[in-house]
Amino acid sequence: MPRRRQYPTNADRQRAHRDRQRLQTLAPGALQRQIDPCTLYCAPAELLAPLLPPAGAIVTDPPYRVGLQGFDYTKPRRRPAQWTQNFAGADQDFDPTPWLRFPEVVLMGADHYWDRLPCGERAWSLLYWDKLAGTTPADFAPGEWIWLATATPPPPGVITHLWRGGMRAGEENISRLPQKLHASQKPMAVMRQLIRLTTACVILDPYMGSGTTLVAALREGRSCIGIDLDPDSFAVACSRVQAELQQLGLFRRGQEAALLSREEDESLLRGRDVLAAAVDLLTPALPDDLQP
Ligand SMILES: C[S@@+](CC[C@H](N)C(=O)[O-])C[C@H]1O[C@@H](n2cnc3c(N)ncnc32)[C@H](O)[C@@H]1O
Questions:
Q1: Ligand 1 interacting residues, C-beta cut-off 6 A
Q2: I need a labelling partner for 201 at 20 to 30 A (CA). Which of 30, 55, 106, 270 fits?
Q3: Which ligand 1 atom is nearest residue 237's CA?
Q4: Which atom of ligand 1 is found nearest the CA of 205?
Q5: Which pTM was predicted?
Q6: Residues in contact with 211: Cβ distance below 8 Å, sequence separation at least 6, in sequence order
């Protein structure tokens, strides 16, 4: 049996080889996983910034220092804490500079690094994600500011989506997802809403964590590139993307099958019409007094 070609053309194979070489020069030891149409890297994002397509849209939830002491995701609240340590970067100031050269940029948690955003230089806007959605304030962040510099930034507004500890709206509701996949996992519905505000074909998340942005991008029909320096997050993101693509594949195959069976139904109907016409033609006309 002939071997399946990994690359459609020689040029594609050469390009992939050049990309691998560039990757190893920029970040020796970086891992790369291609799960078409997604590329995932395990490496420090800042080193890989030059590899990213310049026309892509950055949609990311970066790590940043939360408060003076930092937010402790390992602190138990009602239930025992799920995480034994905070994720990388939660104790450092975030510098958005490497990502601001992209034509479309959506940054979550912007209230933690206001002073580094170029608020005078390009069209930008703000959205407030209201996480309490009308519930009583508790020991959880009431909301989060999102900074957007997109082709046509929307007017400032509010996204309401319940997200306080175990109380989560949408597909991450505790009945569907009892344990979160990442200490700072974001809701799929919110990420999809943000991606819809961008126009680029490729969505870039340099701090992908468990890969929520990538899955959201796939659901919005975009390709995506994600980076995380933590190998565990990288593994979770890879398996999420793979599972999503399988689902989408099954869904597409289901849609195609439904389309085929509709076409079959239609041709069957057309066949029946032809048959009925033929029967009409071949049946000798009954005398008028014997017509039913
Ligand atoms: C706030 S979390 C993202 C969570 C994600 N939105 C989700 O839904 O799962 C930030 C992620 O950035 C990663 N990170 C921190 N510093 C990084 C760096 N320099 N390069 C790449 N990833 C980094 C952390 O490991 C963490 O997984």
A1: 44-46, 61, 63, 87-89, 182, 184-186, 207, 209-210, 212, 227-230, 233
A2: 30
A3: 9
A4: 6
A5: 0.83
A6: 40, 205, 226, 233, 236, 237, 238, 240, 241
